[in-house]
Amino acid sequence: MKKSLLYFLLTFVSNVVFSQSTVKQALSVQQIFEQSEKSYAAIKTYLDSGKVITEYYNKELPSKSSIKFKTAYSKLNGFNFEYYVPNQSASLYIINKTGNVVKSWWGIRNKIESPASLSAAISAATGISSSTSNIIPGLLFPEEWKQKNIYKNIKAVISGSENINGHGCYVIEGKRFENEVIKLWISKTDFMIRKIYTDSKLDVKATRAKSDSLLNNSLNSLSKRIDLEKDSIKKASLVSQVNAIKKARSNVSRFNAGLIPPILNYRKTYHYYPYALKTVKSDFFTFHPNREVAL
Which superfamily does CATH assign the domain made up of 29-202+265-285 to? Predict the structure, then answer.
């Protein structure tokens, strides 16, 4: 009887100690975010590929689209980010940093550009890349973003655990901005993002008004430059830019025709596949504009 009682007490104490240890080790959302930031910032080489699926689900005719992307980062070799719409080579967008030299290229413009900084290049691609240009790069280059990375705007709770592609992940759910619900899957081992889901509302009317204002300002500025420009080649380039802006502005007729609702509901699912190689090829970090993309 005494042995049984002693065994019971030892087992009870052991369970209490283990339970307290488990509680102490449980991480908060903020701690998970901070650990993730540290992991990305400290990594020497990072490679990933992924895709984003976007669904507009409250239109008269719901639609779905996808883009693919890949990231190559090395403290030694540099940085290269690319995204594209499958089977549309003109959609290819590349951002590259080698040493202190930053270059970008977009098939739509078919022109190599030299942004003032990496953050400027990534910010320019944020909208059209469905934010893939800055979600992971914003964590890899904390000095460029400081307080602006994806985690800074999220208010959330841990809702559970889930296995994503063989990796046990924290599931974190909450809100990012007023009109966006967000859900993240962050690996419990390396604290890297494996998946993101967002559900957002876009005020099309307000966005269109803002877009119109920006386009009109650009047209006015370009028109003044055209009037003052004496070089025929530079003037032709400015005229070309004006025509491109006018074409973009003409696309708002779809809204005027009522084909797009005033408030557009859309969800995005981001799939990230980080990977490691024994030998990392320097070609991963090389700037390769104007090429065909995969199906």
Answer: Lipoprotein localisation LolA/LolB/LppX (2.50.20.10)
The whole-angstrom separation of Cα 218 and Cα 224 is 10
> CA 274 → CA 46, 50, 174, 195, 244, distances in Å?
7, 8, 24, 11, 37
80 forms beta bridges with 72, 96
Looking at the chain, the whole-number percentage of residues with pLDDT higher than 70 is: 81
Length of the chain: 295
Instruction: Check: pTM over 0.70? Answer yes or no.
Output: yes
Do 87 and 295 contact (CB within 8 A), yes or no?
yes
Q: What is the pLDDT of residues 235-270, one digit of tens each?
A: 787 787 777 667 656 655 544 445 667 888 999 999
Cβ neighbours around 234 below 10 Å, total: 12
Least Cα distance to 31 among 39, 19, 41 occurs for: 39
